[in-house]
Design goal:
Blueprint: H1 3-25, E1 28-33, H2 43-49, H3 53-56, H4 70-83, E2 87-94, E3 100-111, E4 117-126, H5 128-169, H6 176-199, E5 205-206, H7 207-217, E6 226-229, E7 234-235, H8 237-257, E8 266-275, E9 281-290, H9 304-317, E10 320-326, E11 329-337, H10 340-345
Helix pairs in contact: 5-6, 6-8, 7-8, 8-9
C-alpha cells in the first residue's frame, strides 16, 4: 500500500469513527449549504421530529421548534450564518408523537482551503432529563430558602417567648430551686410544642394532640378523672406555642391544687368551632375542673399562668379569655380566631 493510499484509508477510518461518535451522542445530524439553507435529506432528523422531507427542507426545520421559541431560534441561526460562527442553543423540539422535549442544537461551519464556508453541519441532542433535573434543583433550592427563612422566623419567635418566660418566672422572692423547677417545666412545654411543629411541616398542628401531649408529659391519661372532646382543629405555629404554655400552666395548677390532685375530682376539656360576629371562624375552648374541695376565692397573687391566659393570649392571638374560680373548682374559657385554612382543615 502506498503512503498516499494509507493516508486516505486512515482519513476514511477517522471520518467513520467521528461519524459513529456523533451518531452515538446526537439524536439527529443534518447539513445545510453555505447560506444556512437545508438542501439535502436527514432521515435521522425526520425520524426524530416526525417531519416530512418537504417540511424539513430549506428553513422548514424551524417548524419543529416550539412556537414560543421559533422566532428567537430563527434569529440566532441567521445571525450565526451572517457571522460565520458556530451556534449552540437550547430549545424545545417537537418529537415524533407531538410532544416537545428540550434539545441542544449545535451547528458549525465547515470551511474550504481558502477559508470560505463550504457548508454547515449540525446535530441535535436530547437534554430533557437534564432540564428536568435542573428544574427540580431550582424548586428544591426555592423550598430550602423558604424553609431557612421560616426557621429564622421561628427561632426569633421562640427566643422572644423564652426571654419573656424567663423574665416573668424569676420575678418575686422565691427560692432558686422553685424558680428553676417552674422555668424547666415551661421550657419543656415549649420544647414539646416545637417537636410537634417539626412533625407537621404544613404548619397546621392538631389541637387535641397538643393537649394530650401536655397531659401525658405530666402523667395524666384518659380515665375517670379526665374527659376530652371536640372536633379536629388545626393551629398555627404561634397559636400552638402559646396554647401549649397555657395548657402547661393549667395542668400544673390542676396537679398542685385542682381536680387532678384530689380523689373524686374531674377535668373536662371541650371545644367547638363557631362563626363570630365578623364572620371569622372561632375556636371556643373550655377547661373545667370540678370536685375540688375549695372555697371559691380568687387567688391574690397573679402569677405567670394567669398573666399568660389573661394578657398574652388576647395580645398575641386576639383571643378573649376568662378565668372563674367556682365552688368546687374553676373554669377557663378561651375564644380564639382561626385562620381560614385552619377552619377548612377543621371541618370535622
Amino acid at each position: 500500500m502506498t503512503e498516499h493510499a494509507f493516508d486516505r484509508d486512515m482519513a476514511c477510518k477517522s471520518a467513520a469513527a467521528a461519524k459513529a461518535l456523533v451518531d452515538g451522542i446526537a439524536r439527529a445530524v443534518w447539513e445545510t449549504d453555505a447560506r444556512g439553507i437545508v438542501v439535502s435529506d436527514s432521515p435521522a432528523w425526520r425520524r426524530h421530529t416526525g417531519q416530512s422531507l418537504a417540511e424539513f427542507l430549506e428553513h422548514g426545520w424551524v417548524g419543529a421548534i416550539h412556537p414560543d421559541q421559533r422566532r428567537d431560534v430563527r434569529r440566532q441561526w441567521r445571525a450565526a450564518v451572517a457571522r460565520g460562527s458556530s451556534i449552540d442553543i437550547e430549545a424545545r423540539l417537537q418529537v415524533d408523537g407531538g410532544e416537545y422535549r428540550w434539545s441542544r442544537l449545535y451547528a458549525v461551519p465547515l470551511r474550504a482551503a481558502d477559508g470560505s464556508i463550504r457548508n454547515w453541519t449540525g446535530m441535535s441532542m436530547d437534554i430533557e432529563v437534564r432540564k428536568k433535573a435542573e428544574q427540580a434543583l431550582r424548586e428544591s433550592e426555592a423550598q430550602l430558602r423558604t424553609l431557612v427563612g421560616e426557621l429564622k422566623h421561628r427561632a426569633r419567635n421562640i427566643l422572644t417567648v423564652v426571654r419573656s418566660v424567663f423574665s416573668r418566672t424569676v420575678e418575686g422572692e422565691r427560692p432558686i430551686e422553685e424558680i428553676a423547677e417552674h422555668f424547666r417545666g415551661r421550657l419543656d412545654s415549649l420544647a414539646r410544642a416545637q417537636v410537634i411543629l417539626t412533625q407537621h411541616s404544613a404548619g397546621s398542628i392538631d389541637l387535641q394532640n397538643l393537649i394530650r401531649d401536655e397531659l401525658l408529659s405530666a402523667g395524666v391519661q384518659d380515665g375517670p378523672l379526665l374527659s376530652i372532646e371536640g372536633p379536629d382543629v388545626g393551629l398555627t405555629p404561634v397559636q400552638a406555642e402559646l396554647l401549649a404554655l397555657a395548657f402547661h400552666e393549667l395542668t400544673t395548677n390542676s396537679l398542685k391544687f385542682g381536680a387532678l390532685r384530689v380523689q373524686g375530682g374531674h377535668l373536662n376539656i371541650s371545644w367547638t368551632t363557631n362563626i363570630g360576629y365578623s364572620g371569622d371562624r372561632l375556636l371556643d375552648l373550655t377547661w373545667t375542673e370540678r370536685g375540688v374541695p375549695a372555697v371559691p376565692v380568687r387567688p391574690a397573687y397573679r402569677g405567670f399562668g394567669m398573666e399568660l391566659i389573661m394578657d398574652a393570649l388576647p395580645y398575641r392571638l386576639g383571643a378573649e379569655t376568662q378565668v372563674e374560680f367556682l365552688g368546687g373548682g374553676m373554669r377557663c374559657s378561651v375564644s380564639l380566631p382561626l385562620r381560614e385554612q385552619d377552619g377548612a382543615a377543621s371541618a370535622g
